[in-house]
Every structure is written in C-alpha cells, then in structure tokens.
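Practice problem 4.
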C-alpha cells in the first residue's frame, strides 16, 4: 500500500451485492482502502457475522464501522405505503410496522424534542409532516407533502433536536468491533468536538475516527471537530436534507478548502456513481463531479449504494480508480492528444512504454504507387508478413521493426533489449547473402507479401549483418538440433539479417478470420465489458477438458473479470488442427461454459522455443491489455527439448514483466475423483488428456470420451469431418 502511486483513497460500503468472496477478493486486489459497514443498515446481531465474512476473504483491507450516530429514522413499514396531503398520522416510540395511520421513530428520546409546528421530513425529497401535538412517547401529525414512505429512512426535524452522539446500538457495535481488532470508525452526524471525544473514549486512543459532516451544526462547528478527529467525510446526501440542494457544490468546496488548510484528510460521499447502481457506465456529469472533487482537494472518495446494493460494485470501483489515475497523470500536465487515447487506464501499458505514453494505431503510409514502385523490393513469406502486422499494431511493443544486431545479441544473451526492456524472442528479417547483397543501411525497401504480390510495408534499413546460424540457434532454442522444428526453420533461411523500423502500408487482400483483433480493439472491448483484470489463454489446439480446467481455475485464482481465449492461427505442423476448427470449437466451449470470455485469433506462428516463447507470448498478451497469463508445464515447447520447470525459472529470473503468470502443472482426469486434477506426476488412476490423443481418435473416426473432451465439441468436429470439411493440416 505504501508504495502505490494512487493519491486518492477509495472507501467502499459492503452490503448485499458485495458481501461475498468473489467481490471482496476482487476489491482487495484493487487496493481499496477501507471496507465500510453501515450500522444503520446492519442489525446488531449481524455485525459479528459481517465482520467475520469480510475478514475471511480479506487479509489486508481494514474495516470501518460507521455508526448510526445522532440521527432519527423511521421503523419498518408495510411495503408500498403511500400517504396523501392532509392525512393524519400518529408517530410512536414503540416499534410497530408502520402504515398510513401510524409509524415509529427512533431514538425514543426524539419525542421530548418535538413540539407543535415542528416539521418532520422522511427521506430525501419525500414526505413532510407537521406536528400538531406531542408527548414523551408519541406525536399527532398532519401530512403537508405526501408520497411513498419506505422502511428505515432518515428523518429530518426542524427545529433540529439535540440527540446523543451515539446510540445504544453504536456502543455495543464498538465493543464487537474492538473484539475483532477493528480500529477504524466513522461517526455519523458529528455535530461538535465533544461528539468525537465521546466516540474516541469508546474506541481507544489508537483508533482512527472519520467524522461525518452531514448537518448544519457539524458545518458550523467544523473547526473544533477537525481538532479532535483524524479525518472528515462530507456526506452530501444527509447534508442536503438541511441545506438547499443547489448550495451543496459550493458548500463542499468551502469545507474542502478549510480541511486542506487544517491538513485534515477529507472524504466525499453520496451519489458519486449513482447511475452505476443499475447501469454499467456512469453519466458524464458524475465523472465531472468526481474530477472536480479531486481538483478541489478531496482526499478520499466513498462508494456507498454503488457497492452495497448496486449491480456493478467492482465496475464502480474500477471507474473511480481510472478517474484517480487520470487525475494523477494530469498533475504533471497533459496534452490533448493524451486525452484522446482509448482504453482503460487500469490495463497494463504497452510493454516498454511509460504509463504516460500511448502507442498510436498502425500508421498507413500515403505514398503514391509510383513512388513506391521506385523502391527496391523484397518478397516476404507468410510468417514474416505476420510479423510485419504485429509490429505495426503494437503487439510486439516496444519493437517497431526487425532487430538490429545489438538488439539480437541483447535478447539472446540477456533476454533484454539494449534499452533494458525484457524481451526474449528474436524478430528477424532473414535471408540468404545473395538475396540481400544489394541492400545497404540507409535504404528504404518495399516488403512484398508473396501471397498476393502486394506491398505490405517499407523497411527503413538501419543494420545489415551476418550471423552464425549454429551459435544463434543454440542460444535461441537451447539446441542446434535440426529435428527441432524452430531450429530447422531458422537454419534454412540464410545467414544475412536486415534490421530497422518498418512503416506499414496496410493489410494485403487475403481472406482473414473475423476474430483477428488488434490490441487497440481488445482494449476497447475490455473497456466496454468493464473488465480490468483479464486472463489470457494461449493455445494452438481445440479445447479439451484439460484446457477447461486451466481456464476456469486461472480465472478463479486471479479473480479475473474475464478471459481472452487467444488461439494461434498462423502456419502449423502437419496433423495440427486447422484454425477454423480451433475457433469453431472454442465458440462452442464459450457458449457452454465460459460466458465471460472473449475469443480472438492471434495471427502469429509457433517457434516452439519453450521458455523464451512463454515469456514472449505473455508480453504480447500484455500488449493486448491482459493482466494475467496462463503458463503450463510444457508451454510452447516441443518434444523433450525443455524441462517442465524451465518456464517458471526464466520468468522468475526476469522479475516483474507487467503481466502476472498463472502457472499450472499437467492436468489429468482422475477416475476415483471423477474430475480433472493437476499433478506433476502421472502415478495413480490418472488419465492423460492431450490434443495429440484427441487428434488420433478423431483421425481414426473413434469417439472421444466425455472425460477427455466435451461432447458438443467432439460431435461438432466429427460432423465437420463427415461433411467433407478439412479438420487437420495435411501438407
């Protein structure tokens, strides 16, 4: 917490919508500063249970008990009670179920403060009663303004009664809180310094007290309150029951100004993101209010109903955190261009970029065809054309082109680029000496896609160098054995390398999967979906039960909002599943089991270089906006070239790369347990689950057992094969 960059605190009220493991853990991961329990809506006999629930799923976020304080409330009401003007209503001290004729008020002492001509307002902008006569336990009233009366609503009385600062329930609640180690307390309706002292005497000298300013008396006595309290909280809701609504914005500014001068932390509550109780997105006015509150010196933002009863408690917190981050960045100044960037601020920055920078989308060169025709040209194969597109769209950030010799040597020897950024995968424009003999640094060269003959990019040549294929292969793949498919491909392509930035000319006219999304598009979709924690799942196979286990458990372990299922669709080995089959199979899996999944196609190819590729594929998913990445024991390896623990060892040696790995052992099916399990050993009743096994069964027209693959997926693949659709790569 001490090392974080956030400059504004976030306080969350937990209630029916958020008192559950998933929400509490996800909020704690976002470094929420306090979990607030509102005693006005928590029965005394439920306080201990509520504290235990929060502490069970939260290990570091402190709890704050928010007292009822010196406030008047009505009791339980018959549902949908409506009263009309001039109707007579009796108010009583004894608890009763209220209706249009009689209702109760608490605390009972309020009746000694009522007298003829007292006004009683129930809830904000609601029913207003005029007291006709009263005694110590009741009052006769007439309705001056009719409306609906709900249960347990705040009541405002004019003239304001003098009430004890703490209710009997508050006193008992503090005792319970202290028994659970709670040291944070909020004092509702703090009217004077003596009120703060009264609570401090109960909570102990080491407690933190937040005094809630929500009455005229509290505002008038603000200076003396700030001497005794640790923080204040401006509750704009209850304050607006006594102060005209149109005065609240200016009054808030005045209170914040006084608190800043006194160096007293000031929090602001009520209606920050009221619309998000129902809607996934807030209004522009709400966001403007939050920014102005921070600019005026607010130190903390309080989400109440948004988190307690709203449909999107985590989304509301993410929105506030995003606004805080934007405000933090603005303190150093910002350009209009900075404010035009799209995507969530809570997602990781592109790899190798500062949090303040944003890579523009792929730039298209506007040069005339006549000018382009004058440039020398190199024909590139499918894999190189894919690399060009990924470079252009920022997938390989911080690279902006093919590697120069210093970049290649840094990656091979230190897993870093010359500037210090972690990078493990050589991205090379490679050819034979005679093919590249005419090119020299300083030239611009057209790159022509061999599939169509169209120009796809311009290489601005900065470096041309020769490599020792065997030496590079050994450092890159850990072997120079040509039985390794990555080694075989690399060593067949020549010893001359051209390096330099590329300028994208645009996609060539070939058929494309509609699922080929760019990083700017996935980030936009994550924003629309309200996701800020996303697990990425890399695969080159159709989904079997092992994949299902890994996806589900990765989402649970990381408390993710969603998962990006991101299969590789580039060139594959003979016998591999074709891209259309992989995407179609995952469509069916998502429909059946993973509603919070986004399917996208990763237009690249496997290098089969084990640990290096595990890091590379993780960094690419970071650039797509993901926060977590699934890594299995044999991630992107081939044969027995890599040990099961090498992926973890390399990642741990590199430190924080900006995306969190989620490691998995091999997944088996256990007959005795009847479910999938992870294990580093296959001993026992474990059955192996593998894409190879699935391919063999389908190729032999044999059924795939349900424990190995979901029936709707295997049946669909069989249907495709029987209808004449190619399922596997054949040559």
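Answer key:
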């Amino acid at each position: 917490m001490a090392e974080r960059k956030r400059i504004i605190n976030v306080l969350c009220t937990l209630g029916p919508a958020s008192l559950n493991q998933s929400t509490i853990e996800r909020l704690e991961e976002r470094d929420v500063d306090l979990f607030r329990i509102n005693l006005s809506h928590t029965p005394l006999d439920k306080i201990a249970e509520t504290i235990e629930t929060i502490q069970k799923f939260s290990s570091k976020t402190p709890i704050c008990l928010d007292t009822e304080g010196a406030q008047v409330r009505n009791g339980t009401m018959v549902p949908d009670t409506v009263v009309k003007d001039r109707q007579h209503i009796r108010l009583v001290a004894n608890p009763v179920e209220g209706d249009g004729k009689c209702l109760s008020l608490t605390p009972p002492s309020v009746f000694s403060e009522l007298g003829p001509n007292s006004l009683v307002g129930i809830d904000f902008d609601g029913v207003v009663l005029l007291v006709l006569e009263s005694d110590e336990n009741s009052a006769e009233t007439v309705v001056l303004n009719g409306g609906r009366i709900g249960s347990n609503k705040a009541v405002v009385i004019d003239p304001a009664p003098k009430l004890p600062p703490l209710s009997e329930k508050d006193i008992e609640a503090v005792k319970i809180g202290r028994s659970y180690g709670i040291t944070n307390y909020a004092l509702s309706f703090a009217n004077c310094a003596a009120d703060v002292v009264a609570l401090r005497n109960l909570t102990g000298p080491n407690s933190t007290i937040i005094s809630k300013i929500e009455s005229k008396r509290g505002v008038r006595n603000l200076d003396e309150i700030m001497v005794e309290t640790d923080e204040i909280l401006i509750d704009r809701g209850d304050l607006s029951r006594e102060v005209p609504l149109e005065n609240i914005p200016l009054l808030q500014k005045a209170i914040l100004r006084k608190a800043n001068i006194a160096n007293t932390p000031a929090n602001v509550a009520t209606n920050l993101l009221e619309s998000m109780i129902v809607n996934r997105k807030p209004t522009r006015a709400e966001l403007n209010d939050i920014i102005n509150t921070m600019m005026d010196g607010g130190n903390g933002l309080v989400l109440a109903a948004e988190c307690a009863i709203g449909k999107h408690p985590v989304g509301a917190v993410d929105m506030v955190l995003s606004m805080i981050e934007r405000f933090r960045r603005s303190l150093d100044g910002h350009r209009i261009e900075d404010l035009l960037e799209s995507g969530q601020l809570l997602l990781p920055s592109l790899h190798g970029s500062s949090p303040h920078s944003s890579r523009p989308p792929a730039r298209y060169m506007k040069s005339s065809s006549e000018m382009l025709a004058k440039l020398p040209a190199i024909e590139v194969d499918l894999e190189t054309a894919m690399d060009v597109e990924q470079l252009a769209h920022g997938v390989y950030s911080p690279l902006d082109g093919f590697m120069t010799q210093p970049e290649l040597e840094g990656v091979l020897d230190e897993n870093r680029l010359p500037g210090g950024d972690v990078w493990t995968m050589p991205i090379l424009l490679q050819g034979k000496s005679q093919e590249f003999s005419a090119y020299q640094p300083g030239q611009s060269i057209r790159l022509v896609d061999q599939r169509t003959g169209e120009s796809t990019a311009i290489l601005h040549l900065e470096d041309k160098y020769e490599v020792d294929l065997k030496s590079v292969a050994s450092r890159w793949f850990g072997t120079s054995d040509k039985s390794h498919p990555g080694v075989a491909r690399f060593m067949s392509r020549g010893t001359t390398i051209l390096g330099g930035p590329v300028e994208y000319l645009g996609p060539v006219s070939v058929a494309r999967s509609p699922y080929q999304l760019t990083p700017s598009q996935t980030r936009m979709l994550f924003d629309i979906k309200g996701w800020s924690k996303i697990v990425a799942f890399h695969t080159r196979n159709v989904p079997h039960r092992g994949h299902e286990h890994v996806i589900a458990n990765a989402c649970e372990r990381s408390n993710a909002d969603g998962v990006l299922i991101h299969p590789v669709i580039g060139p594959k080995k003979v016998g591999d599943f074709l891209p259309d089959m992989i995407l179609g199979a995952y469509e069916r899996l998502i429909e059946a089991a993973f509603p919070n999944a986004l399917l996208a196609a990763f237009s690249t190819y496997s290098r089969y270089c084990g640990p290096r590729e595990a890091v590379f594929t993780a960094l690419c998913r970071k650039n797509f906006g993901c926060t977590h990445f699934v890594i299995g024991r044999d991630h992107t390896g081939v044969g027995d070239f890599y040990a099961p623990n090498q992926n973890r060892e390399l990642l741990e040696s590199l430190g924080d790369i900006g995306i969190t790995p989620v490691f998995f052992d091999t997944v088996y099916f256990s007959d005795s347990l009847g479910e999938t399990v992870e294990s580093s050993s296959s001993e026992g009743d474990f059955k192996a689950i593998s894409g190879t096994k699935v391919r063999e069964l389908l190729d032999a027209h044999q059924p795939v057992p349900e424990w190995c693959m979901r029936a709707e997926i295997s049946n669909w693949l069989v249907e495709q094969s029987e209808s004449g659709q190619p399922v596997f790569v054949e040559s």
